[in-house]
Design a protein that fits this description.
five-stranded parallel sheet, about 140 residues, 7 helices, UspA, alpha/beta, globular, Nucleotide-binding universal stress UspA family protein, Rossmann fold, 5 strands
Length: about 140
């Protein structure tokens, strides 16, 4: 089964649902390792800094978005690590995934940024097209 699982997350309901599916996959293999990535684009980063001024507060707010996923991982006893990536989410996640040997990448069909999905194309679509590993898109 799958040993190295990447979850692309942003704290949205879709990313939490996709994380639950990924965690289910991880539970099938006692040696599974899960990496949860959250990509921050330049605009979001600027807005975070303008609203909070303090980098430690910004970092804590970003981690808080992933807390529901982290809570489930802990409850299920799944080995995991969290990674915050800088850059446009689609390309940043693709680059991260392709530089490592993941068995599967799991992503929600939609995220927090509705405008990006309508105008530029969805992050999940970019990931599915460009990641070398199998990709599961969860609705």
């Amino acid at each position: 089964m799958f040993k190295k699982i990447l979850i692309a997350a942003d704290g949205s309901d879709h990313s939490i649902r996709s994380a639950k599916k990924a965690i289910y996959l991880a539970e099938q293999n006692p040696d599974a390792e899960v990496t949860v990535v959250y990509a921050i684009d330049g605009q979001t980063s600027k807005e975070d800094i303008l609203h909070h001024f303090d980098k430690s507060v910004v970092d804590e707010a970003r981690k808080r978005r992933l807390q529901p996923i982290e809570k489930i991982l802990k409850e299920k006893g799944v080995s995991y690590e969290l990674k915050i990536l800088q850059g446009e989410p689609g390309p940043a996640i693709v680059e991260y995934a392709n530089q490592r040997d993941f068995d599967i990448v799991v992503v929600g069909s939609r995220g927090l940024n509705a405008l990006q999905e309508m105008v530029l194309g969805s992050v999940s679509h970019k990931i599915a097209k460009r990641v070398k590993a199998p990709v599961m898109i969860v609705k």
